[in-house]
Amino acid sequence: MSDDIVVDHLTKQYKKLRAVDDLSFSVRSSRVTGFLGPNGAGKTTTLRMLLGLVTPTAGNATIGGQKYTELPDPIRHVGAVLEASSAHRGRTGRNHLRMICRAAGLPDSRADEVLALVGLTPAANRKFKGFSLGMKQRLGIAAAMLGDPRVLILDEPANGLDPEGIHWMRDLLKAFAAEGRTVLVSSHLLGEMQLLADDVVIVAAGKLIRQGPVDEVLGSMGAAQVKVRTPQPAELTTALASLDGVTVAPQADGSLLISGTGAAAVGHAAFTASVELHELASERGDLEQVFLQLTAGMAGIR
Ligand SMILES: Nc1ncnc2c1ncn2[C@@H]1O[C@H](COP(=O)(O)OP(=O)(O)OP(=O)(O)O)[C@@H](O)[C@H]1O
Question: 45, 295, 302: which to mutate for ligand 1, most atoms within 8 A of CB?
Answer without folding.
Answer: 45
